[in-house]
Amino acid sequence: MFGVGARVRRKEDDRLLRGRGRFVADIALVGMRELAFVRSPVAHARILSFDIPEQVRRQVFTWQDLEPAGVRPIRAASGLPGFKVSEQPPLAADKVRFAGEPIAVTVAATRAEAEDIASQVIAEFDELPPNVDMLAAAAPGAPCVHEHWSDNIFLETRVGQSFEKDVAAAPVRISRSIRTQRQCIVPLEGKGLVAHWDRQAEQLVLYTATQMPHIVRSGLSECLGLPLEAIRVIAPDVGGGFGWKGLLQPEEVVAAWLCLHLGCPLRWMEDRREHLVAAANAREHHYEITAYADADGRLLGVDADAWVDAGAYSIYPFSACLEAAQVGSILPGPYDFPHYRCRTFSVCTNKPPIVPFRGVARANVCFAMEQIIDAIAAAVGREAWEVRLLNLVPPEKMPFDNITGKHFDSGDYPESLRRAVAGIDLASVRRRQLQGEPDGRLVGVGFATYCEQGAHGTAVYHGWGIPMVPGYEQVQARITADGGLELRAGIQSHGQGMETSFAQVAHEVLGIPLERIRLVHGDTGLTPYSTGTWGSRSMVMAGGAVATACRRLADRLRRIAAHLLQARLEDVTLSGGMLQSGQADITIAEIARTWYLAPQLLPADVDPGGLEITAGYKPKSDHGTFSYATHAAVVAVDAEVGLVEILDYLVVEDAGTMVNPAIVEGQIFGGVAQGIGTALYECSPYDDAGQPMASTLMDYLLPGFTEVPAIRIEHMETPSPYTEFGVKGLGEGGVIAPSAVLCNAINDALKARGAVVTDQPVTPARILAALRNARAEPPP
Amino acid sequence: MKPAPFAWCAPATLDEALDLLAGHADAARILAGGQTLGPLLNMRLATPSILIDINGIGELAGLHPDLAGLTIGALTRQSTLEDDPALAALQPLIAMAIPHIAHRAVRNRGTVGGSLAHADPAAEWPALVTLLGAQLLARSKSRGMRLIGADEFFITHLTTALAPDELLCEVRVPPSPPGAGYAVLEFARRHGDFAVAGAMVRLTSDAGGKLTDPRLVLFGTGRRALRARRAEAMLAGASAGTALFAAAAATAATEIDPYDDLHASAEYRRHLAEVLASRALEEALARMNGKRHD
Q: What is the pTM for the complete model shown?
């Protein structure tokens, strides 16, 4: 078994795990020079002048060099009404809007020398008051980040109507202020690029660590004024993206222009400090939520205001509003309730632009909504899982259109919860709590259930009106003369194992052995257009296109086989890489040899398209697939010092049909590890002057091997009715629930002391503060 | 994150190293394991014009136990100590503390002398030598050999009594008193991080069960690792007990001068110091009484 559903080892791991991959940093071109960026030391200021020593003047470039040459600012508008457009010059023009913004670039033979020069470039600033906190920045009278705007709101959205009359008699009313922190993304490999001019192809070639080479190409074309055919973007091996590599970056524009200007290959490798302070920021939300419920805990309505700190600029292509606007549509989560109203604000601040991070907005809304469910349960005196169960969309209602019009495709949400309750052994945790711990720690258990929209298609994205709307996903499939298969896809695999899973899909259809199937991806010169790998879409979309292309190749193979076997077409079957009719058979390799090398044997009406095909694919409904899961955790809290230990962690998930369960589990393990970081450790704080305070990995705490427990996974497999094989997107799922689960478990542990934590990360200091507050204000 | 230009030289003998130090003093930095200096160079927080790489000076590495205690060469790697099967019997506290030092990869390169000379107040070695009453041997061309007591060695945060031309060469640790019970407790958000706060304890008692020469060191809680002498005075001559330990821990927490940083407020550090001191005293007592063998 090597096809869909097989737990095969990843083909790409042989090179990746042995350190034999080829990443941007492994690429060296003759005559290549290195870039270093000079970054703004202040958060908000007018640039008055540059002082550049004469001996290095020719190695330093600013916007004064780029703008006259026709370089255009990065512009990512949304078509949503009221959206305010920001323009981001790839090197700051007259004004800097966040500390870390690139203001100049230096070129030298080595990075060290480029940094030597960068340290000699001095800018003089006229400092302006910075907008550091999103709520203050959104308030009237705050200084404008973009001076021609009337306020600092990129976009305000409203969903639903006021419903106070309808819930006036609700016995339960819960209000919470909830804050999620600014995070950095921190893939193992940071951003990096090599740019050169290919004189033969007359093309700018940009090797760049990206998830979306075709979109980077479009963005470069806009900023540089070059036609698309003059640009080739290649993503070599990429060491993790998580969203950080799902955008056009200013450094890409600068390096590309400079390569054209100087006529030599250039390289820039983002260093970890640049990563932490200048760019890869995500996830900073604030919620004011009021929920209403009946005496059993049944949700009657949710009324929410949500703010997202979108930073200084709108990023290309996702824009500054995608995160907040999604909050409005996904806050109801997997629940069915009658009344909903939500306002969202994408707030412009003097911080790095917020970029999409795995589980965009989903992890935050899950953190908020699942706290609300637990609070309702506490108010009505029931187990939190019972209240969840009462409100989850039941399987008999599937497919289900929820209150914001999300179309849940399939699944049994309550069953995932019931299995999690059984699997975590809630009863024994409750007994343990009664007995108390020998070491005095407090034990708690938490649950969270979510559903995750992935693989959103045209139907979802055209409404946003951003520079990118996914359509038919195309894959090229080519059978080689010796019976191998080449797949060419415009997505980019950077840890998802697509070289394996796509081969499994192709093998399922054609029966060609996995080792004879190759995936070519991440190169605009070799692959069909694609919006790339983001939004848990590649397996659904490109995987579906692989299946479609292979099926059409199978038809062509059968036609040739029928002729060669002297059989009727309807009698020819394809199985195990062999075409058969009765006792006669012929291999795919023999047919391929005939097509390429012995065409005289082909039928007269053979399809002249031959054994190469480009197929486009969309699911039957492209509103997105909805995978879902319940996570459960048991924690022990040391109430004296505030430390949390995760004693048990269980995931009961359903992502439809699994192409490769090992890859699915890898996605979940990694996602949960990242979610644990969100829950307990990671935070990128800014001081009052807008200075980032976590500039090294000693200050930006990532969970490591010793902080991530063994994670148990139970699978459910409800196929999507709309996709090839019933697969659903699941790449982001693991990261969505951990912060909610751990927060709920910690609150369960603290409830004996009357303490509640509401903000993430749940640090020891926050736990102790909650305990202090509980002592100061004992519950009534 | 690439270093500013510097010259690199690798003396083969101690004498050559001291000559270089004498010649460059303020402009030079000693490169041993490089686990701290490397990042400081890359972030250009340190910009020496010359690095004196002592890794080739074999005589600076190694352990030499004798009747006067244990002599540890400054270039001894943390992992050498960690892997030495005799260490737990000779110096139980050092053996207990080493696994708290960062991660194994760092311990493979990082050196005892490097940690001491860097004098991070949250690091284990300054606390160890302070508690154990070790002496640090420095050499220079101008002063020759000099023994510095741990109490005088650490001036403040990242500052020692070493003169610019002096090289820390070895650490002399007195023998562990018979029957001593030790404890090392650290609070860190993640395993291997610098301690947000830490406590080390050594307890011994006389035939009548009274504590003799109790030692309590708090680290990560001020500008240098600190012997909590008032708390020690409360313990000395008293009979061990939970109430006494709680009182001593509370006193110890008043002796420190904690600081705020991104990971903890001064107030939180003081709270941690008290909790850790109390727990470490209990743990050391259990070990002294033979009730705990881990």
A: 0.96
* Window B:22-61, CB contacts with A under 8 Å: 39, 43-44
Which residue has tokens 């820390």?
Answer: B168
C-alpha A721/C-alpha A726 separation (Å) is 6
CB atoms within 10 A of CB B237: 13
- Tokens 């050499």 correspond to what residue? B139
The phi-psi region of residue A576 (left if phi > 0; otherwise alpha if psi is between -120 and 50; otherwise beta) is: left
For chains A and B, count residue pairs whose Cβ atoms are closer than 8 Å: 55
Class of domain A359-456+624-776: alpha beta
Question: What is the predicted pLDDT for the residue at A463?
Answer: 83
Cβ-contact A628, A334 below 8 angstroms: yes
Summarize pLDDT for B40-92 with one digit per residue, the tens. Answer: 999 999 999 999 999 999 999 999 999 999 999 999 999 999 999 999 999 99
Helix axes A362-380, A322-330, angle to 10 degrees: 30
Provide, for chain B, the percentages of residues in helix, strand and coil under a 3-state DSSP scheme, each rounded to the nearest 5. 40, 25, 35
Backbone angles phi, psi at A18, to 5 degrees: -90, 5
Tell me which residue of A643, A613, A593 sits closest to A768, measured CA to CA: A643
At A23-49, the pLDDT tens digits run 999 999 999 999 999 999 999 999 999
Which of 169-188 (B) contact A at CB < 8 A?
187
The CATH number of A13-128+191-238+245-278, from 3.30.40.10, 3.40.80.10, 3.30.360.10, 3.90.1170.50, is 3.90.1170.50
C-beta separation of A510 from A550 below 8 A: yes
A716 phi and psi angles, rounded to 5 deg: -120, 160
- Which residues in A lie closer than 8 A to residue B263 (C-beta atoms)? 699
ipTM of the prediction: 0.94
CB distance B43–A681 less than 8 Å?
no
pLDDT tens digits for A400-455?
Answer: 999 999 999 999 999 999 999 999 999 999 999 999 999 999 999 999 999 999 99
